[in-house]
Amino acid sequence: MEPTAPQDTQADRVAAALEGLIFDGVFSDGDRLDEVRIAEQYGVSRTPVREAFQRLAQSGLVRQLPRRGAFVRQPGPIELIEMFEVMAELEAAAARLAAGRITDEALDLLKDLNRRSDDAVRERDADRYYDENERFHAAVYAQSGNGFLERECLRLQRRLRPFRRRQLRLRGRLRQSLGEHRAIVAALEDGDATAAADAIRAHVTVQGEKFHHLIASLRQAAE
Amino acid sequence: MEPTAPQDTQADRVAAALEGLIFDGVFSDGDRLDEVRIAEQYGVSRTPVREAFQRLAQSGLVRQLPRRGAFVRQPGPIELIEMFEVMAELEAAAARLAAGRITDEALDLLKDLNRRSDDAVRERDADRYYDENERFHAAVYAQSGNGFLERECLRLQRRLRPFRRRQLRLRGRLRQSLGEHRAIVAALEDGDATAAADAIRAHVTVQGEKFHHLIASLRQAAE
DNA sequence: GATGAATGTCTTGCATACAAGAATGTTGAC
DNA sequence: GTCAACATTCTTGTATGCAAGACATTCATC
Question: Which residues form the HTH gntR-type domain (chains A, B) (predicted)?
Fold first, then answer.
């Protein structure tokens, strides 16, 4: 049950493309997605486009009103904060479980991932750091030993990706983030479930907070 | 963004019906869902049936293999344990947040719901207790003050419904469950986030454990 | 007798056609 | 000039038709 099984059908292609456009902010909240326009644009009939809409609707990216169409649904600041809060809790749960189940081998993997992140920070390569960061978190999910939790975490991680990406650009965040990663690994190494959960919760919550500030400043600037 | 917006389209009707059949265990894991058969059965064409399949696939109830069809996907014992574990963590998160945000009014509501549960227990009405139980938990989700978390909790609660229902039938579970509810309310009343989270986590985990035993005994009986 | 290729059937994926509901514009009355 | 009722147009929801991939059966070969 992969969250998004990359199948070779047209509907999947269109769904993936639209998802990308929504993530990239090409569409604003409330925009209507025209079936025929999109169908023409991708050279397919309305059927696969409609299937794509349904998938996006289930992911919460679009809202379908019966007999009225599909509308883009961008999360507002409040909902984003909420989503980061849930992400923090899910990751905390993963860390808690991982603390009791993690192997030495997996610990080495996490340390190795952090070393690579360190390289990226030193080279000021934000994009590469971002990738390594995601791998680190995914590795923690995997170590929870709970496949369902892992998939839920990956799902939300994916959904928050475009927003996390923005806030990582903030000054000094990279190095700080890396330090937090080390604290998480240390807690896992100690087998301290509570400490691991608290560490990763704080780590992710910081992202939400930073994002909150970012939004607030943008809003102020707009006024 | 209701998890299942009851819309008046054929696809929704078929999706709801199939979901019910899957939940009720009419279909076993791996069963193939025949488009044409189901279409005839519900007096519609293949199109809405296909749309229904997609929706069920997104919910994880069926698995779609390209060019091969839709197959029912019932969670096995391991995945169920995993799902209960995640449910416990999500509810713990909701309780943690609720502890800091809950109002006196909401506390009264929870106490009232528990009183009604008490009535149900006294009348040995398992079904009614079950309903009141769900309302109690839903009220805790709502008090988290996090709409996204609330929806995620409701989604998983819904998915686990058929399995929870079974284990509540176990001897003595009703009264025990009610006592745990009281402990949760007490912790919330104290504003003790950790205690509230631990209490509800234990409460839900017990359900998973009980379920585990149930499965194990069934398996033993089958051998 | 077993294995593999070829063919035939069945099922899905997509395109197109049609019908019904929603949105829009027009006309008429006040 | 404004509002409302009606008609028109547009869009969505559903049905059907067609093509390509998957499965099964059969036949040939080792």
Answer: 8-75
- Find, among A167, A155, A175, the residue nearest to A204 by Cα: A167
- Sorted by sequence, the CB contacts under 8 Å of residue A33 that are 6+ apart come out as A18, A27, A53, A62, A69, A70, A71, A72
Minimal CA separation from B53 to chain A, in Å = 10
Closest residue to B51, CB basis, from A54, A92, A93? A54
Query: Which chain A positions have a beta carbon within 8 Å of B4's beta carbon?
Result: none
**What are the pLDDT digits (tens) for A80-135?**
889 999 999 999 999 999 999 999 999 999 999 999 999 998 998 888 988 999 99
Q: Which residue do the tokens 């008090």 mark?
A: B143
CA atoms within 13 Å, Cβ hemisphere of B71: 12
Distance CA B91, CA B139 (A): 11
Question: Residue B70 CA to chain centroid, in angstroms?
Answer: 23
Beta strands across the sheet bearing A62-65:
A32-33, A69-72, A62-65
**B160 neighbourhood in chain A, CB within 8 Å:** none
Q: If residue B39 lies in a helix (H) or strand (E), which one and from where to where?
A: helix B35-41
**Nucleotide with smallest C1' distance to residue B49 CA:** D14
Q: Give dist(CA A173, CA B197) in Å, integer.
A: 30
Count CA atoms closer than 13 A to A85's CA, side-chain side: 21
What's the gap in Å between the CA of A155 and the closest CA on chain B? 12
Residues of chain B with pLDDT under 50: 1-6
List, in order of start, the domains of chain A with CATH numbers. 10-72 (1.10.10.10), 77-222 (1.20.120.530)
Could you tell me if A211 and A167 are in contact, meaning their C-beta atoms sit under 8 angstroms apart? yes
